[in-house]
Structures are given as C-alpha cells and as structure tokens.
Amino acid sequence: MTSQVSSPAEQADEAVVGEQRKPAGVKDVQRLDRVIIRFAGDSGDGMQLTGDRFTSETASFGNDLSTLPNFPAEIRAPAGTLPGVSSFQLHFADHDILTPGDAPNVLVAMNPAALKANIADVPRGAEIIVNTDEFTKRALQKVGYAASPLDDGSLDGYSLHTVPLTTLTVEALKEFGLTRKEAERSKNMFALGLLSWMYHRPTEGTEKFLKSKFAKKPVIAEANIAAFRAGWNFGETTEDFAVSYEVAPAATAFPTGTYRNISGNLALSYGLVAASRQADLPLFLGSYPITPASDILHELSRHKNFGVRTFQAEDEIAGIGAALGAAFGGSLAVTTTSGPGVALKSETIGLAVSMELPLLILDIQRGGPSTGLPTKTEQADLLQAMFGRNGEAPVPIVAPCTPADCFDAAIEAARIALTYRTPVMLLSDGYLANGSEPWRIPDIDELPDLTVQFAQGPNHTLDDGTEVFWPYKRDPQTLARPWAVPGTPGLEHRIGGIEKQDGTGNISYDPANHDFMVRTRQAKIDGIDVPDLEVDDPHGARTLVLGWGSTFGPITAAVRRLRASGEAIAQAHLRHLNPFPRNLGAILKRYDRVVIPEMNLGQLATLVRAKYLVDAHSYNQVNGMPFKAEQLATALKEAIDG
Q1: CA-to-CA distance for 31 and 41, rounded, in angstroms?
Q2: Which of 524, 441, 430, 513 is nearest to 477 (CA)?
Q3: What is the largest CA-CA distance in the chain?
Q4: What is d(CA 181, CA 169) in angstroms, rounded to the nearest whole number?
Q5: CA 106 to chain centre
Q6: Which residues contact 240 (CB under 8 A, 6 or more apart)?
Q7: Which residues 6+ apart lie within 8 Å of 584 measured at CB?
Q8: In what order do the strands lie in the sheet with 243-247?
Q9: How many CA atoms within 13 Å lie on the side-chain side of 179?
Q10: Over the chain, what is the mean pLDDT?
C-alpha cells in the first residue's frame, strides 16, 4: 500500500489528528497511520536497548517499520556532553514505509544534551518528553544553555511533557534494596514502559527479554520489569498524558509469510549461512573487528552447527589472507571490513583476482577518509571497490538496498563468486547495517542452487596423448577456471601472484600472454550474467532518478511524494555496479534528465558519465546521515522543472 505523501510538518500534524474514540473508563485513544519516535540520551542511558525493545514489540504487533540507530564513535564520551548523545529513531505504520522518517513526532530526551542535539529535527507541534531530573544547572551549562529551555519559553511551540524519570524510577524500585545508582540505570525501562502505553505496544516480549538478559541477576531482572511496568502505569494514571495512540498492524503491506525484524548485518550473516548450505560448502570468515562490520563476525561465530568457522585475525591483512587460504581449500570464504580495512586488504584482493578464486569481501561503508566517522554512514567506497588495486584487477560489485535485502545480496554475491571464480565486493553501509525492518523468512526451495563441482581429474590432452590437469583451462561460457581442492591426486598446480601462462598456470613473463590474461580476466567480469535493470515509470516521465545501495528508501519515498502531487518521474535502482546491467545504457538514453543521488560526491555519476556519455546530474550528501525524503523530493522537483 502506498503511503500518504506529506511534508515533515504535515507528518507531525498526523500525530495529533485522526479518528478519536473514548472507551468507557479509559483515556482518549487516537488512531494514527504512522508515528516517528526518537529516543535520545547519554551513551550510557541505554537508548539503543530501549529502541531495540520498542522495535521488537512493534514488529511482533505487525506494523511495518524502519529504524535509524545513531550513536557516538567514542566508546564512552563524557557524560552529558553533545558528543556523547546516542539516539534511536523508529518509524512504524499501518502501511508500507521505506525510511526511518524525516522528523520525529515524539522526542524522548533524557538530558539537556539530548534535547539540544535533536531539537532542530523536531517539527513544531510534536511531543517532547524530557527527564527533568537531569536538567540541573551544571548539566545545562555543559551543553551551552544559559537558561533552562523548560522555563524560557523556547519550547512553547511543542507539546512538552516534563517527567522526573529518574525520581519516579528510584521510587518504584525502593523495595528491591538497590543503591540509587543501580536503580537509576532502569530509567530507560521506565521510559520504554511509558511509550509502550502511549502506543499500545505489547509488553510480554520485553518482560521475557529482561528475564533472559538478567537471568544470572534475578533481582536486577525484576527491578527492570518493575520499572517498565511503572512507566506503563504512569502513562495510564497521570493527567499529563490525556491521549494514547493506536497504529494498526500493516495487514495489507506484506505478502503472506512468516516475518521477523532484521538488521542489515544480521541479514548478511543469515544470507552467508544460507549460501554455504545451498553450495554445500563450509563457510569460513576471516575478519578483524571494525565498526560497523563487527556484528557479522559476532553473529556468524554463533553458528558452528551450520559448518561455520570464524577466525578473528590480528589485523585486516591476516583476516583476508586466511579467507583466501580457505577459498583455496574449498570453502565459501568471506572477509568483512569497512573502508579503512579495504585499503589494507587491497593487495590480497588483487592476489585473489590473479589466482581466480571465489572470495566475498563485505565492505560495510562508513564516513571517511582514513578513520573518518566510524559510526556514521556513507557510500563513498564505490570507486575504491572499482579501482582500488594495482594493475588491471576487475572485481564484481553488488550492493543491497535495504536491511532485509542484505540477505538476498549476500546470496547473489556468493553466486557470482562461485560461478565465475572471482572475488566479489559487497557494498553495504552503516545505515543498512544497523537499521532494521520486517523480513519475510524465505522457504528453502526459493533459494538458488549454488552447488559447485570441484575438479576431479585431468582436463586437457597434450599433443602426445598425455592427459594432464591445466589449472587455467576455462569454462567456455563463464571463463571460470577449475577449482581444484588441495590434496586431490594429480591436480597439483602452482599458485601465487606472479602472472600465469594461459592454460598451464606456469609462471609467464611473455608480453602477449600477459595481454591475453588481462583481457580474459576483464572479459570474465564483463560477461557475468546479471538481470536487466527494471524501471518504474508509470507515467512516461522525462526525468529518471537512478540510485544504488541504501538510497533506495529515501529515493522511493521522495518519488511517491512527487507522484502523489501529480509529477511524472521514473525510478531505477542498481544492485549490480560491476558489471552494470546490459540494458542500462539504453535506459539512460530514453530520458531527458538523469539525476543520481548519492552519499558521496558523485562516484556512480562519474562512472555513468564516463561509460555512457550521459549528462547525469549528481545530488550529493556527505554528512554521515541518510537522505531525508522531503529533501530529495525538493531536489527532484527542481530537476523535473529544469
């Protein structure tokens, strides 16, 4: 179901209007079609956990949802400071949605820093819930407030709820014999209970989660549950909250099936496990921890029962070196990293190109250059993935477009790597990695057959009739060389980074042979079978918006807004970035204007302009945050009018 198009201000209005009803004996209940909530506090306030729990209950309720966790790069920034603010935004609705929302309808601010860091994003008329206990003179001065915004009238345009969350939590937990500091840690559960009451979220899952999380500390578990229930009861009894809200399940938004909430990194992990099972190969991950890719290592380490082996190396180079060795040994081999790690792995990626072995390199992109912005998103590694190696070293590139799509993208990357005997780059990013949405769990028979045939014996006959094994004798369709598992009798062959002779695999410095091998490796990548690009163009538009990766949600939301206002605009989104779909050039030439939004300074636009000689226009953002739909809609409207 297509969502109703509206501006951020109009979306805020949607949170305070709608069908009202008042069942006997309870407060007013208002029906909404969507809500955007942002929890914000100090990085020690548990905002990510709070958001995760609210998201899980929302998913179990049946709403469509999209999330945007946003946390500081510092392991523990000074308490109460702007660099230490952590937030979690959740957009949930009774219909199909695509983004975590442009502007929150509700902001929960646990301290002055959280309020100051987020107030600019909150539209007038939205609800703001603040923890008044933290608005001390010292805390206000720490973030530059000369006077308390709760008293100086600066928040008069909002629906402000002042709640002493810390005091109420400590009071609710008196019977547990905790110290004040221990009791204060549960204030995020009080806030979660209050918001769960406001939006009629289920509670059983959170209580079960708390019992499991603190199973070894039953008193702490019961204290958190008590704080959660106290927050719910506070919403039910206080006069400050006169209305609660209902957002019905998104009953018609999804195809029939079994769904679960999933993040991009979790979907990638499951996709890798599924690919290894479909290929009937053991899965090996050689990795060095790096934000925002580390969760893949953490998750895969839990699945030894599926033949998964994880190796946490001492550095990035060792991680990919071990993975390439596992590929040589007959495993589905993977290494995970982010942009800085790709730079370190580049020589070994080139070695994998030369050896022509299947290897998956998962680059979960973040802001750069160098260490850059470890916890902020960016998609600026495309040119690095294309060209970031010495010599002519072509590598296929696949990019997922949503958190759930990471599952399918991982399987597609594995298909290409195994079929064509090549390393493959998969470009996700921090927005997809940490964001989440509902995912339909596929049936096994929906997954592709990735079974691989290893070389078993001689594959070439010499002029004298002798049968031998040539490690670089190629499949005529795919140009893939045979995959010979070490230890197979008669298949001994030379490997390494020095140029090989075509067919025999012997070391060769012959100029003509090198030219042939370079061109053959490029032809293999160019010949990869990828689906044609599909274009969504119901009205015969003259303007095409072309995207890749995580810009899919904001672009699609912007396109929906424009079409709802009567504009004609076409949309296409690339999954395969090397090679491009074969029909891309013909598609681009059909339109008068092509706009390419990217979270970089125009890397896909550079490739498109160079390859197809199309005057593609870039629309760029590199602030560490995903595009907002309203922002993109405005830019695309200008392109249509131009």
Answers
A1: 28
A2: 524
A3: 97
A4: 11
A5: 23
A6: 161, 162, 163
A7: 533, 574, 612
A8: 20-21, 28-32, 243-247
A9: 2
A10: 94
Half-sphere exposure of 388 (CA within 13 A, CB side): 20
Q: How far is CA 522 from CA 249, 417, 554, in A?
A: 49, 15, 34
Query: Strand 259-263 relative to strand 436-440: parallel, antiparallel, unpaired?
Result: antiparallel
Is residue 421 helix, strand or coil? coil
Both structure tokens of 187: 């204030």
- Within a 13 Å sphere around the CA of 65, how many CA atoms are in the beta-carbon half? 33
Rounded distance between C-alpha atoms, residue 233 and residue 240, angstroms = 13
Cite the beta strand spans of 482-553 per DSSP E: 535-536, 543-548
Q: Within 10 A of 295 (CB to CB), how many other CB atoms are there?
A: 20
Gap between the Cα atoms of 199 and 30, Å rounded? 10
Collapsed DSSP state (helix, strand, coil) of residue 585: helix
Quote the pLDDT of residue 75. 76
505 contacts 472 by C-beta, under 8 angstroms? yes
Q: How many residues does the chain have?
A: 642
Are the C-beta atoms of 415 and 282 separated by less than 8 Å? no
Q: What is the pLDDT of residue 26?
A: 59
Coil, strand or helix at 291 = coil
Cα-trace Rg, the chain? 27
For residue range 338-393, list pLDDT tens digits in order: 999 999 999 999 999 999 999 999 999 999 999 999 999 999 999 999 999 999 99
Q: How far apart are CA 291 and CA 241, in angstroms?
A: 40
382 vs 119, 332, 548, CA distance in Å?
34, 24, 10
Tell me the C-alpha distance between 408 and 13, whole Å.
37
